[in-house]
Amino acid sequence: MSFRSVLAAAGISLRASIWWPFRPRSIVDMSYSQHFMDPQGSAIPTTMKKLVATKLTANFRQAVTLQAGVPVPVPGDGDLLVRNRFVGINASDINYSAGRYDPSAKPPFDVGFEGIGEVVALGRSASARFTVNQVVAYMAPGSFAEYTVVPANFAVPMPSLKPEFLTLLVSGTTAYISLKELGELTEGRKVLVTAAAGGTGQFAIQLSKQAKCHVIGTCSSNEKVGFLKSIGCDRPINYKTENVAEVLKKEYPQGVDVVYESIGGKMFDLSVRSLATKGRLIIIGFISGYQTATGLSPVDAGGLPAALLKKSASLRGFFLNHYLPQYQEAMLTLLKMYRDGELVCEVDFGDVSPEGKFTGLESVFRAVDYMYMGKNIGKIVVELPHPVTSKL
Ligand SMILES: NC(=O)c1ccc[n+]([C@@H]2O[C@H](COP(=O)([O-])OP(=O)(O)OC[C@H]3O[C@@H](n4cnc5c(N)ncnc54)[C@H](OP(=O)(O)O)[C@@H]3O)[C@@H](O)[C@H]2O)c1
Start and end of every Enoyl reductase (ER) domain (predicted)? Predict the structure, then answer.
């Protein structure tokens, strides 16, 4: 049950605060065409819908087009064909569609970073490890599609088709690996998390708490403050109603030991100023700049050397793609924590957004808007219903 539905069940209205490349290869052994059966009895269609970046811009609606009648791709020998049932929205979807991940990328190209769904077909080598009808999740390009070809090496078997598992693929692993590798968390450390109520922030809060740290989180509404308290945040700060710099100065005069920083710009500057002696700031992102032409958010770079030297403090950049050797351990640990009831994986389907739940590829555009309006609590997920199972 989501945080918002818990509140709704308790009769608390939320309306007041919510205004509203992998190229497929041909099958080597065609006897494996037997795998091309829908496990639920219906034929796999020959065509599908998918989102494609057709223009390089950070304006997602201008960059990306919903295409219909596209051939369903054929998995190669080591690939799975996955019918996507839930796909995750990430802040960097707009960086990707702007070509910032790969400056040599020329449109058209597929978009979407992660999905969970059923294997509906697979190549011979892939069938050594996976079977038709198996639920898998993956982090690989091209998930904003009804069907995606996923290299088997990129697929993670999942116990069931739950959207909560999807929250771990990018958002959970980012928090887990960055804090483990760069955070040096020990009992009693003070940790500041920005964008704390979002997809990855929610995990940074919980993992820091589990490391017995004192955790401070910034967010933009009282509803998010409530959510942050519910997942153990010691000092949520609604930056719309409280001055973050003043709160930190007054309540944490010695500074904070670790910052998990996702916003950039002024929030980055004040986070650097708030570091304790020997503190460290992990650069997770700078979302406040992603919608601009450069994708950057200006910071006080000139003052940085002195600010860091005076405190023997450090800046540490983190990019998940550079930590793939640590990925499997992170996923297994997070899945176990969730299964054991030690981790909340908050999903936001946009139920309270003006046009309701994010359902179908068409709603990916609304879901990206919703994130950039700062409305989400937890990970934004879009459901791609499948007509056969939705009747069950
Ligand atoms: N380095 C990596 O490998 C990696 C991997 C995954 C994500 N990330 C980064 O983590 C950050 C969060 O990403 P996410 O996908 O989990 O998103 P998210 O946190 O679910 O959503 C973004 C949140 O950022 C906050 N925000 C603050 N200022 C904003 C602005 N000017 N425009 C839009 N949002 C603003 C909003 O919450 P409040 O305003 O309430 O705080 C919003 O809800 C991003 O910087 C992203 O690039 C990095």
Answer: 59-382
